[in-house]
Amino acid sequence: MSEKTIIRRLPERAVTDRGAINAILDDGFVCHTAYVTGGRPVVIPILYARDGDRLLLHGSNSMGIVRAVRAGSPLSVAVTHLDGLVVARSAFNSSANYRSVVIHGEGRLLDGDQKRSALDLVVDRVLPGRLADLRSPTETEIGQTAVIELLLDQISAKVRSGGPEDEESDMNAGVWAGVIPIALTPGQPIPAKDLRAGVDVPDYLRHFRR
C-alpha cells in the first residue's frame, strides 16, 4: 500500500482481498484511463482485460495515450460498476451501490510476441470462445494496434452495498426508501446486414454473460 492507494473517505468500504478486487476487474471490459499530455490531464475510455497481476489496455497506435506512455506519463485507471441507486428519505443520505477499483502506475507498450499474445488474450477475455473462430491478424493490423501493460501493484478498491442509512429523525417521513437495482444485461445477438446465409450464432455468443 502506498499514499496513492490509501482510502481516506469512508475507509470502511475499502476492499483489500485480492480475489475480490480481481472479480471486480474481471466483471468489466471498459475502464477510464487518465494520463498527462502537454501539461494537462486527459481521461479516455479504453478496452481492457486482466491477466494475472497486470492489466492490458487495448487501443490504436494513433491514440494520445500511446504517445503519452512513450513520453513517460503516469497512468491512473478506474473501473466502476453501478449496482443500484440507494433512495434514502433525504437527499443527503441518498447514495449508490457500486464496486470500484483504481490503479496507479507506469504503462509499458508491448511489442513482438508479447503484443501478439496480449491481443489474443484480450479477445478471449472479452468474448470467451471467439478467438478460435477468427483468422490471425495481419502484420498491418498488429502494427496499427497498441497494448499497454499496467502492473496491478498500486491498487485500491471500494464497495458499497445494502439499503439506505437514514437519520433516526427521518424514519417516520412518509416517503419511499429503498434500492433501485441496476445491471448491465447482454441482449440477443443482432446479425450483420451482410451476414452470409446459413451462418448461425455460436453458442458462446448466444449465451454470452459477464
Structural overview:
By secondary structure, the protein is an alpha+beta fold. It has one domain: Pnp Oxidase, Chain A, CATH 2.30.110. 20% of the residues lie in helices and 34% in strands. The chain has helices at 18-26, 64-70, 112-126, 139-144, 203-206, and strands spanning 30-37, 40-51, 54-60, 74-87, 95-106, 108-109, 145-151, 155-160, 178-181. Strands 1, 2, 3, 4, 5, 6, 7, 8 and 9 form a nine-stranded antiparallel β-sheet that branches. 17% of the residues are buried. The mean pLDDT is 93.
* N-to-C series of helices and strands: HEEEHEEEHHEEEH
Which architecture would the CATH scheme give at its second level? Roll
Structural class: alpha+beta
Number of strands: 9
Question: End-to-end distance, in Å?
Answer: 29 Å
Radius of gyration equals 21 Å
How much of the sequence is in beta strands? Answer: 25-35%
In the CATH scheme, the class would be: Mainly Beta
Low-confidence stretches: none
- Fourth CATH level, the homologous superfamily: Electron Transport, Fmn-binding Protein, Chain A
Q: What is the mean pLDDT?
A: 93
User: So what's the overall shape?
Assistant: globular
Please summarize the sheet with the most strands. 9 strands, antiparallel
CATH domain fold name: Pnp Oxidase, Chain A
DSSP summary: helix tally: 5
Helical content band = 10-25%
Overall number of domains: 1
Keywords:
alpha+beta; nine-stranded antiparallel β-sheet; Pnp Oxidase, Chain A; 5 helices; 210 residues
Task: Summarize this structure briefly.
By secondary structure, this protein is α+β, with helices and mostly antiparallel strands. The protein contains five helices and nine strands; from the N terminus they run αβββαβββααβββα.
